[in-house]
Amino acid sequence: xxxxxxxxxxxxxxxxxxxxxxxxxxxxxxxxxxxxxxxxxxxxxxxxxxxxxxxxxxxxxxxxxxxxxxxxxxxxxxxxxxxxxxxx
Amino acid sequence: xxxxxxxxxxxxxxxxxxxxxxxxxxxxxxxxxxxxxxxxxxxxxxxxxxxxxxxxxxxxxxxxxxxxxxxxxxxxxxxxxxxxxxxxxxxxxxxxxxxxxxxxxxxxxxxxxxxxxxxxxxxxxxxxxxxxxxxxxxxxxxxxxxxxxxxxxxxxxxxxxxxxxxxxxxxxxxxxxxxxxxxxxxxxxxxxxxxxxxxxxxxxxxxxxxxxxxxxxxxxxxxxxxxxxxxxxxxxxxxxxxxxxxxxxxxxxxxxxxxxxxxxxxxxxxxxxxxxxxxxxxxxxxxxxxxxxxxxxxxxxxxxxxxxxxxxxxxxxxxxxxxxxxxxxxxxxx
Lengths: 88, 334
Prior knowledge:
Number of strands of chain B: 10
Radius of gyration of chain B: 21 Å
Number of helices of chain A: 3
Order of helices and strands of chain B: EHHEEEHHEEEEHEHEHHHH
Helix content of chain B: 40-55%
Strand content of chain B: 15-25%
Oligomer: heterodimer
Largest sheet of chain B: 7 strands, antiparallel
Distance between the termini of chain A: 11 Å
Structural class of chain B: alpha+beta
Radius of gyration of chain A: 12 Å
Order of helices and strands of chain A: HHH
Mean pLDDT of chain A: 86
Mean pLDDT of chain B: 95
Distance between the termini of chain B: 50 Å
Low-confidence stretches of chain B: none
Shape of chain A: globular
Helix content of chain A: 40-55%
Strand content of chain A: under 5%
Largest interface: A-B, 19 and 17 residues
Shape of chain B: globular
């Protein structure tokens, strides 16, 4: 997938496949808090790696925060920012 | 009759032996000042990653808190009493006590060693159910702190199995929260702890009349060991151990909360130090998560390889500057 044209839906697909949320929380919205939905810190790293591999990016250190991985929308925004910085 | 004892989210959970008391202490906001008056000192074992606890907070006694009633028994004492461990734990939970003991994880569902290998590990019992199960708390097979259940029959087997496998942890403790106490954070006491941390002094010396001093790198001196570990890790010369930077993050996480509380108590005397503490917390989290990512990717993260040494050095320098400034600011307060 190209990071420059990434859609929230594409990011959502990757996040939900790796966040290991409880089954009853899989229907969360793009703005819902993933931590409150049951994502733990180890799952967040799995999400990070999966997103990086899916969109061929690497999150800089300053993006490795709870806030960036707090929602599908926040992760998608970060992917777009990084892709923009890398000129994709 | 069933009973489930409450727990909170412990602010530090790198090792179960201190995560368990913290999980009980965070049920209620009362012990907050006590928690922030502790968890300041750190110690690094010169044995490094080969040590069972290479880097950790320093405790004289991890069970000791004014907010906890602690009954300390041993496997030998329990055996002398002749009562079944299931009956003991069931009665304890009904009385409001959380049993804390080691078991063979081979028999505990949803644990890393379940059904595959025999392994002594500590566990906290927080519930008993009429259906013949205990509710227990600790690191699950997903490597996160979780509440799970185990049948009382398997729990009994996990306890008795320790007689047959290597085990050096013989404690059978019982924690019960206390409410008839008070504790208020004293800026002078915290300042003295900061001074000790900054100097890298051996804080086990304070307890030298009770036990031999402990050979560790303390406080700021622990950074030397962390830098050495990171260098060796990046050179593929040592094994992965996420606990180093996880504990570092826990230390900074609590330091941010501590600085906020100190600011409240001193009319804002250390308010300017809260933001640098938040930055240290973010740096430590980036180190921890960056290292996990590096390992997930078979040690191929260029970001971690290129930035982590500088980030750790910056964190160390900021730590020294912030705590030095805090010591100066807190001298005006008793």
